[in-house]
Amino acid sequence: MIRIFNHYVSRTGFILLLLEVLILHGTASMVLLLWGGMPQPPKSVYLAGLVFAFVNVFSMSALGMYQQQIRQDLRAVLARVPPAFVLGFVMMVALMHLVPGIGFGRSAGIAFMLGGAGVMLTRVLLFTSSQSNILVERLILIGGGALALECMEVAATRNGPRRFEVVGCVPMPGEQRCVPASKVLAPGETLLAMARRLGAHELVVSVGDRRNGAYPVRELLDCVLGGVRVTDAAAFFEREASQIRVDSLQPSYLIYGGGFDQSFFRAFVKRSFDLLASAAICAATLPVMLVAALCIVLEDGGPVIFRQERVGKHGRRFQVLKFRSMGVDAERDGTPRWATAADPRVTRVGYWLRKLRVDELPQMINVFRGEMSFVGPRPERAYFVEQLSGAIAYYDVRHSIKPGITGLAQVRYQYGASVDDAVRKLQYDLYYVKNNSLFLDLLILIDTVQVVISGKGAR
What we know:
InterPro entries: Bact_transf, EPS_sugar_tfrase, Sugar_tfrase_EpsB_2. This protein is an alpha/beta fold. Helix content is 52%, strand content 11%. The protein contains 17 helices and 10 strands. The two termini are 34 Å apart. 33% of the residues are buried.
């Protein structure tokens, strides 16, 4: 993994992205020069090729082709290429009408066919190489308790080109063993000798209690000096799962682990991004919002906008705005309830508003007011915040920044409807609060497009 603006990105995925940008740019430039139909100034060819590449990369990202969380076979990977390039073609045609200088004319179809073929070939080569053991990283876990078992589960479910193999665990004295007996490594040699014998690339320290005198500090130092990476379990979760696990989190990790950028420059960049993104989406979705409002009125004649108190930055309360997707008397008894699958309170129009995330669009007004950001932890109701703050450690950390219309938890996890779901979503929220940047905001925005297209997680 490599770290870009505090966010961990797969090295293989990053190389794949660069290769595909080069292939798409080269394809577009070649098509313009050979079949463009008119002489093209070098600057125009370069600009058109760059726009062509980024439009198609965006469309592939929107269909989840750069996500590392989903393990797919080759057919599933290649099946996404045609729809992605169809979406890219539609976007490119719209862009050519807005910016005539980047037009391809009749050669656009050739550029898209050759570009799609180049992407397919690149994916085939990557998939073939990922089936070998070259991209498999071998891990040794220091510890054999519940934390080590969690690390094993993350390693086993790690998807994408780079995969992990846990070659064994080194249990600590006095620790209750939770890992399978087949994974326990017999003592008798140093950690460095063991790592070299087993071909391990990294040691993950997954010991819950490090005050034990048997904790091998000196041996871990020897491993670092001997060229074997040593990683703390909290950093492993953050790097590989984009989560900060609250059940095994040490306060010192949050204090000394870096991140949590609250500088004036970051605030200025984030506010500018919020306003630009919200204004652009408002302009693009205005016809959709007008149709949604009309459908709500026609269904039951009730109010179009639903207002509900939510908890924002530093615990301040505000009224969040949404298109009403439930009946007028959805909570007639006055008791807040989690939304459930096939919730009977949701109207027929509301079902589609939620499915397509159209019900969230009025929250742009909350962004313009400064109550919310475009990207951030989702704002929760005060009733649930009081419950969750008492039950979940570090829950209030998510209130150190403005809540968002979309967020990392929304694109990585299903709709939350329980305390357990809240814990899992908090782990993504903590990661975002710690590592938030414009780069991560853009990635979440692209993932949000994919979630809207696929309809994942709606209730």
